Fold this sequence. Notes:
The protein is globular. It is built from eight helices and six strands. A six-stranded mixed beta sheet has the order 1-2-6-3-5-4. A hairpin with a 4-residue loop joins strand 4 (124-129) and strand 5 (134-141). Helix 2 crosses helix 8 (218-228). The protein is α+β, with helices and mostly antiparallel strands.
Amino acid sequence: MRFMMSRDAACGVLVCVGLALSAPAVAQQPTDWPRESPPPPLPAREATFPPYEVRTLDNGLQVVVVMHHEQPAVNLRLMIAAGAASDPEGRHGVAALTGQLLDQGTSSRDATEIAESIDTIGGLLSVGAGTDLSFVNVLVMTDSFELGIDLVADIARYPSFAPVEIERQRQQVLSGLQVSYEDPAYLAGVVFGRLVYGDHPYGIPHNGTPTSVLGITQDDLHAFHQTYYAPNNAQLGIVGDIDAEA
């Protein structure tokens, strides 16, 4: 059975539709969804911070010792108040490359000896640089504290910046940049930084660019180290099973 609509009826339907479309839209009232307030905060608890001491040595180095005896371990962190924001003009990436090379050889130890020194005592060693600081971090058991502090001192004061290590680390930086340039999130961050900070160092990736990294020389690394790696531009934090006198 076929349904047939007369011409007049069809016209009437079209008129109704047209009137409906031309009528002003009526805003719908928001649905009254149930709303819940966040839970109230828990009662305030008294925080007990471990005892600590802050001392400034004769050479200007500030030492912060936090005595925490729950585990027989000590964490040492030397922080230098200079990072990528202190890169020389046109030499972006110097601070980052300097930080990466700290544990790749000193005047008395090569990279292998440094790695073996920390591995044989079951410790951890990390170095690097951020935007506003560079660091050397060592975690050792309490009975290896003397070796830990010796490593921190040697790495921070006497990096060799051997040409072969410079080139090896340079290639790692360049490979990392190549991978990062395929990441939309990284590119968005780079563009955002440039829009916000312009030509200020904050607006430039702390690892530099391929062009700037290729232009970094051994002299650039030595100059950056001699300028900023000074005791009166640093702070040494020591946390763990140790006392301030030690």
